[in-house]
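Assess this:
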Amino acid sequence: MKKILSLMIAFVCLSATASNQPPTPDLTYAAEKAVNSVVYIKVTQAGKTRTYQYVDPFEDFFGDFFGRGGGSRPQQRQYREPDRKGAGSGVILSSDGFIVTNNHVVEGATELIVKLNDNREFRARIIGQDEQTDLAVIKIEAEGLQPITIGNSDDLKLGEWVLAIGNPFSFTSTVTAGIVSAKARSLGTGDIQSFIQTDAAINPGNSGGALVNTRGELVGINSMIYSQTGSYAGYGFAIPVTIMNKVVDDIKKFGVVQRALLGVSGMDMSNYIDRQREQEKEVDLGTTEGVYVTSVNSDGAAAAAEIQEGDVITHIDGKKITKFAELQEAMAQHKPGDKVVISYLRDKKSKKATVTLRNAQGTTNVIENFDDEELGIGLRALTEVEKREFGVKHGIYVTAVRDGKMKDAGVFKGLIINVNGTDIDSTEDFYQQVREANKSSERVLWIKARSQTGTPRSFAVELEGKSNK
């Protein structure tokens, strides 16, 4: 009996040894190769200056005592909030100091300090930001840095080992390991999204850090976590390098991302089928995968190629498209003017169309970063007293107008303005609306204003073309 048991144990051990299961990879090579290319970013945001009213109790007392009368009068004081400190991570892209990080790491920063893995520190400046993809490029004045090796996120496979490298909770140069849990994951916020989902531990401070494969190649920029507590709960998300490469190149070349649009709205076929079945409708479109086109912009690229509502997009340039996030990722890798071949089904019949992609303005022109100086305007926030005096809840005050686009449109000093139907309370709010308008199809800044006497006015500020300076 003992002999038979020994033989069984030996057989089990032999079977396990001879199995085709790959061994757990050695991750030390990837960690050592990539860790010196990940930096710690210290962020300072200047505290806002706020105006408040107060009443001096001694004024009422001495007013009565010396016979001045009138009671106490409200007075104004300004209070500057303390500077806010934050931190994140970044990845070195070139030996001369270009670094990629998340937009939310550096947004609103008045000072950026980059700390390298060897503890050297440098001041950084922002080269460009892209809110939609949550990416930003910053630059330090240094040479001989160790840039990371760029991989290909398209080659990632589910279950593949990856490392997240960053600075969670200010613990610098931290490496965690996990696998690729999903690809082309959308979180449903409406922006361009096609995340790599990983179970490698990611926490606050990891934002902007590197997601690398077992060869130490960058495959993603760690961006966010899914958590009900604010700390890691098993779900982390990274922006694929296929998107990052395009955004970084555009920012360095143009200062703003050249975003290519197909001109359709759509949903995953799986979601469309589920919705139809909820209404007790049968669905047979010839496929259960792809993007169901729910609407087509009349002046967009897809409409020009005669793609219609109800079509199902299945491939772009021969690459299979199974869900809307994959379509978004494919578009994010192109610029306006690029031609792509769209394969789609209509009435279960296969069709192809060559589509010339367009920008938000419906053209293939390069969109330049708008120079705020071209507006030719001085602005400041309204005080609470001024809001009451002028009878407004929101708006900013025009302190000066010089030659530029605002003067061309008829805007003059002394107006209280709001922009594009949005309540404006600060100059930062105003210039954010300018940037959004510059990306829109009309490229017009709609100004709703009122004079100090309460007379309403409106102006259309053309952002395209040169002003009459």
